[in-house]
Amino acid sequence: MAASSRAQVLRLYRALLRESQRFQAYGYRTYAIRRIRDAFRENKHIKDSEEIERLINKARTNLEIIHRQVTIGQLYSTQKLVIESPEKRDNLII
Predict the structure, then answer these.
(1) Contact at 8 Å (CB) between 62 and 15?
(2) What distance in Å separates the CA atoms of residue 16 and residue 67, rounded to the nearest whole number?
(3) pTM for the whole thing?
(4) What is the pLDDT of residues 20-79, one digit of tens each?
(5) Which terminus of the chain has fewer Cβ atoms in its 10 Å neighbourhood, N or C?
(6) 26-39 b/e with 16+ CB inside 10 Å = b?
(7) Considering just the CA atoms, what is the radius of gyration of the chain in Å?
C-alpha cells in the first residue's frame, strides 16, 4: 500500500472511531467501535489498490451514516446505564 493511501486509511480509521465515541447510547457506541476495529483488522492484508479504494469509499459512506445517527441520537436524551456511571456502580449492593 502506498504511503499516501496508508495515511488516508489511518485518518479514516481515526475519524470513524472518534465519531463513534460521540454516540450517547452505550450499546451503539461499543458496537460501532468493535465493528470498526474488526473490519479494519479483517482487511489489513489487502494489497489490491482497486479493492482498497472500494473499501475506503465504503468506510466514508459509513462515516457519514455514523455522523447522521450521532446527530439524531443527540436530539433525544436518555439516562445513562449503570455500567456507564462509576459512582452508581460502586453503590450497588450485590
Answers:
(1) no
(2) 9
(3) 0.80
(4) 999 988 899 999 999 999 999 999 999 999 999 999 999 999 999 999 999 998 898 777
(5) C
(6) eeebeebeeebeeb
(7) 17
